[in-house]
Amino acid sequence: MKKIDISTQVTQVDFDTELTEQEKQVMIAARKAVDTAYAPYSNYNVGAAVLLENGEIVPGNNQENAVFPLGLCAERVALFSAGTSFPNSKPIVLAVTIASDNKPGFPCGSCRQAMVEFENRFDHKMKLLIDSKDGQVITIDTVRDILPFSFDQSNLK
Asked: Are strands 91-98 and 46-52 parallel, antiparallel or unpaired?
């Protein structure tokens, strides 16, 4: 038997002093998007925003449905909106925030898988910014760092 060790590194940075101006703007857009989330069942409002290589920032927020599997998470709303409005512009940064004061809200497995698809589609890593609500932001260089065994086109051959 051979064990394989998998580790993930994330970085915590100060919003005011360690993010670029573009990263600050995409996080601010995510923070605004959380205010209009539709989450009457879970009361877990999530906002997201994606910065594209063309400079556009596309917001998204979670949209729930009484039939829970029919809703969509904020990250996928932002990415799919960007893919519809700007189909040839690669996503550079994705920011995520939640309305509550508890711990940071990391993307769910479905969102991570969708993010991997965007990274593969554009052959480009997408940086993740996770709001920690205390002036700090958790940064992750690529979604593969938090979904190491993702499913992609190579599994279909």
From this structure: antiparallel
Q: What is d(CA 32, CA 37) in angstroms, rounded to the nearest whole number?
A: 10
Catalytic residues: 75
Report yes or no: 30 and 96 within 8 Å, Cβ to Cβ: yes
Structural domains for the chain:
15-137 (3.40.140.10)
Per-residue pLDDT reduced to its tens digit, 51-82: 999 999 999 999 999 998 899 999 999 999 99
The phi, psi pair for 104, rounded to 5°, reads -55, 150
> Please, which residues bridge with residue 72 across strands?
63
Low-confidence ranges of the chain (pLDDT < 50): none
In the chain, the amino acid numbered 81 is: S
